User: Which sequence fits this backbone?
């Protein structure tokens, strides 16, 4: 653990005094401290292109009254900068009066991941050697492989949260990830494939022989599938999504619209739909921040020190809950759900997803494909985004195949999938029995903050608009 | 208070000296201090305030042809020393690469004209709120606008010093003032609609007036009300300027030195070949005075001049950094930190002349998802806009656009309504053919 008050002109006691003096006159708030190092190693074009270390160190003080948030952060942890931050917060909030100071917390005693340093778990030399093996392995698969990029990233993030009253919470949050991307070329046609895995565990737990090869094989499969791909169809049709990473559909189309800040701002189209049937009865959606097994979206406690937990968002098609941080919970008279998260000390927390997934239904993927007259089967989805207000979302498809009269036909090139969240959740007509969580590479952006998330879904059949170029 | 030049120079020199002592044969250090303050405002009151003060050090060390890098937010001398020791240790282990070296001395910036990139003005939070309030008041004067979804004003000041072991030591202060308002238009059958307007300038007095900002945002949000669906079809497409700008971002990524050297750009065989029609010129000018996107030199210290990226439809220049220019056997043009002020020169038709002979077309006012894949050359995105059919127009949403970047580039026709507003600037663009609309 990092001692943020060692060798400094600011002792812990002094910091607590400043925090108490500043925050006891507010509704809520805390001091968040961070000491993290990220190691990135990239191989590209057959060479090690990048070895770098980035250190992030600093603190952010937050004060909240009613629905107004004042935040001030700096990378100097000193008495002067903490006093400056406190003055800045007092200045923003001077015309507001706190009705009730609340520093009660739902405390967590779970330990979901190791506190070992993932950077030191393997030497740099070993990692460089592995990346070269990845390069050789992928290039040996086909002479059409023209470019290989592979990277290993590891982060050791130590945080501390100090509430008014002096309650202190520390956590050491490891992250590791490995990604392989390739480009293949046949004639003048270029195709791409990219895959990754990762989570809150050490390298040895997954960069063993089989795991890194599995990642490479999937990147290779995506790129080769597109070599002979035809134009994708355009227009509204049935789409069968494969299980696992396709959970990004749930994340964009539904997940974001169930974040508590959009509830109290009444900007989500679901803000007045609690208790209503918003989806097919086959659909049950969970967000679970305390998921075991080193999932990327898991935290021992969230970035406001609230306990993470399993939250049911949609139960058999009925909207039953939103995801809250302390602010949105208070303003909507709910309990915090452990979803208050932030990218780093440079940001105030807000309601975010953790690991979001749909529960199993009863159909097999074959049954879904058989039921489609004209549509596509999506084999690999890319990223996506959503406009909360209108509910319009989009995703990039990496690989797909045409379905005609219940049979899989030719490969088609990547196309964008679009729809509106409230429609798509109703338009999920078949839910599969093969729930799988993603491989551990989800990144989610909201209001300029990126956090890592997990997601998952069983195979699903859903009506959507496919953005191909074949009329 | 923003750290002064002397302080930043001392930090940079300390790192350079230390790295050399530890065994670096060459090195480069960038030290910067940024202070930004912003407020968010919604429905007549402040929603949040944020103050950020960051001192960042970025270091690249070379030992012969071995290279490694590190970045840190300033902590203390002890931590800085630890990170510098670490980067040297890692440099020694990193394999050699023949292109790893500092830029040649003659490419480095020497004297340059002051581009006037720093405004001393301080816009305190109260003043920021006044801007947002005025924009919101103007927007709410429209009956169809129900409320503000979000609005924010941010002031940012940066000072930096870049030094390398060839004796380079340069840097300057820069400022930016940015604000936006994002509005909700009244609920209609299709659900809520929103749209925004945004402006950002180096000088506060050049910023768009709040009333104008509120008015533009309101009109845009209202334009999206009562959307219909459209059918799947091939039809002429018009990108309004804020959408057409994305064509330049896509081009920027497709002509990067890295994607040419690594063979991953769909344009990789096209240098000095035609990729647009004869009437298309694209310029990148790093030396525009008072523009917050100007950069007289890049983050490697290489001087950057005004260049034609595309002249009479022919691709003339790439976006080059030192490393990839060496790999391509070319000279860096100082674009290691990206393009600067990039623009299409005006076409020769007004907007009305552009659309005069079209029976039916779609004006795209919003896109979602990527704006083309520069490796495969495929283009596919979600979109919303306005459909014009004879004399009637109506809002449409939830459709897709797809085609090939190659065709979009070659077919596009430029209007003559160019305005400088962003880093990438385009007049209205007509794509007469090559895009398929996916809908009902």
Assistant:
């Amino acid at each position: 653990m990092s001692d943020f008050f060692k060798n400094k002109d600011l002792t812990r006691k002094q910091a607590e005094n400043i925090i108490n003096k500043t925050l006891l006159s507010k509704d809520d708030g805390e001091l968040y401290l961070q000491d993290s190092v990220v190691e990135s190693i990239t191989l590209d074009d057959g060479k090690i292109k990048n070895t770098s270390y980035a250190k992030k160190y600093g603190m952010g003080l937050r004060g909240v009254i009613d629905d107004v948030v004042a935040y001030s952060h700096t990378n100097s942890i000193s008495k002067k900068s903490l006093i400056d931050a406190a003055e800045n917060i007092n200045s923003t909030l001077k015309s507001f009066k706190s009705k009730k100071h609340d520093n009660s917390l739902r405390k967590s005693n779970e330990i979901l991941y190791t506190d070992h340093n993932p950077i030191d778990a393997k030497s740099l030399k070993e990692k460089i050697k592995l990346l070269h093996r990845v390069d050789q392995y992928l290039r040996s698969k086909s002479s059409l492989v023209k470019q290989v990029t592979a990277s290993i990233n590891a982060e050791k993030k130590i945080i501390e949260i100090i509430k008014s009253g002096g309650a202190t919470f520390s956590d050491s949050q490891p992250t590791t990830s490995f990604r392989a991307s390739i480009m293949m070329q046949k004639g003048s046609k270029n195709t791409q494939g990219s895959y990754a895995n990762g989570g809150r565990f050490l390298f040895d737990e997954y960069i063993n022989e089989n795991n890194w090869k599995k990642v490479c094989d999937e990147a290779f499969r995506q790129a080769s599938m597109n070599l002979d791909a035809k134009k994708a169809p355009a227009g509204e049709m049935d789409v069968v999504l494969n299980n696992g990473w396709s959970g990004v559909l749930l994340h964009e189309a539904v997940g974001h619209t169930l974040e508590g800040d959009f509830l109290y701002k009444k900007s989500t189209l679901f803000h007045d739909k609690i208790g209503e049937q918003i989806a097919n009865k086959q659909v049950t959606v969970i967000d679970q921040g305390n998921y075991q097994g080193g999932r990327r979206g898991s935290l021992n406690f969230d970035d406001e020190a609230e306990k993470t937990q399993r939250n049911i968002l949609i139960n058999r098609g009925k909207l039953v809950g939103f995801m809250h941080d302390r602010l949105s919970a208070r303003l909507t008279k709910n309990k915090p759900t452990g979803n208050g998260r932030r990218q780093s000390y440079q940001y105030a927390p807000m309601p975010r997803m953790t690991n979001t997934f749909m529960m199993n239904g009863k159909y097999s993927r074959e049954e879904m494909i058989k039921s489609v007259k004209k549509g596509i089967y999506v084999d690999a989805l890319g990223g996506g985004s959503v406009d909360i207000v209108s509910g319009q979302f989009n995703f990039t498809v990496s690989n797909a195949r045409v379905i005609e009269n219940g049979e899989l036909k030719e490969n088609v090139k990547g196309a964008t999938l679009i729809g509106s969240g409230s429609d798509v959740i109703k338009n999920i007509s078949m839910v599969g029995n093969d729930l799988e969580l993603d491989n551990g590479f989800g990144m989610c952006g909201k209001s300029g903050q990126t956090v890592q998330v997990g997601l998952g879904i069983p195979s699903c059949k859903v009506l959507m608009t496919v953005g191909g170029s074949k009329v | 208070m923003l750290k002064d030049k002397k302080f930043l120079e001392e930090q940079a020199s300390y790192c350079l000296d230390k790295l050399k002592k530890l065994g670096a044969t060459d090195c480069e250090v960038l030290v910067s201090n940024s202070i930004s303050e912003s407020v968010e405002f919604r429905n007549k009151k402040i929603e949040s305030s944020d103050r950020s003060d960051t001192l960042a050090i970025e270091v690249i060390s070379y030992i012969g042809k071995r290279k490694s890098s590190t970045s840190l937010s300033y902590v203390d001398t002890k931590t800085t020393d630890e990170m510098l020791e670490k980067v040297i240790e890692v440099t020694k282990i990193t394999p050699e690469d023949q292109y790893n070296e500092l830029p040649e001395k003659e490419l480095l910036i020497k004297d340059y004209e002051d581009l006037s990139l720093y405004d001393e003005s301080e816009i305190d939070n109260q003043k920021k709120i006044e801007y947002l309030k005025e924009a919101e008041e103007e927007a709410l004067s429209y009956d169809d606008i129900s409320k503000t979804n979000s609005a924010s004003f941010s002031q940012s000041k940066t000072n930096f010093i870049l030094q390398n072991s060839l004796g380079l030591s340069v840097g300057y202060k820069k400022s930016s003032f940015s604000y936006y308002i994002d509005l909700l238009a009244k609920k209609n059958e299709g659900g809520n609609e929103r749209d925004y307007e945004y402006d950002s300038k180096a000088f506060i007095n050049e910023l768009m007036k709040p009333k104008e900002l509120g008015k533009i945002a309101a009109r845009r949000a209202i334009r999206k009300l009562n959307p219909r669906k459209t059918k799947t079809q091939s039809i002429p497409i018009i990108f309004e300027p804020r959408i057409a700008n994305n064509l330049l971002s896509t081009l920027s990524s497709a002509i990067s030195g890295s994607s040419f050297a690594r063979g991953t750009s769909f344009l990789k065989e096209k240098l000095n070949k035609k990729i647009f029609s004869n009437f298309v010129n694209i310029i990148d000018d790093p030396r525009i005075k008072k523009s917050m996107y100007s950069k007289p030199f890049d983050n490697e210290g290489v001087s950057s001049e005004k260049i034609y990226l595309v002249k009479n439809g022919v691709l003339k220049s790439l976006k080059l950094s030192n490393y990839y220019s060496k790999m391509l056997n070319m000279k860096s043009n100082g674009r290691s930190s990206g393009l600067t002020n990039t623009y299409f020169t005006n076409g020769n038709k007004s907007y009305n002349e552009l659309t005069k002979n079209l029976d039916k077309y779609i004006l795209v006012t919003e896109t979602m998802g990527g704006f083309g894949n520069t490796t495969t050359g495929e283009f596919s995105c979600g979109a919303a806009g306005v459909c014009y059919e004879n004399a009637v127009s109506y809002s449409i949403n939830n459709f897709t656009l797809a085609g090939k970047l190659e065709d979009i580039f070659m077919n596009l026709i430029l209007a003559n309504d160019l305005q400088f507003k962003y880093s990438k600037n385009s007049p209205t663009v007509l794509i007469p053919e090559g895009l398929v609309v996916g809908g009902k």
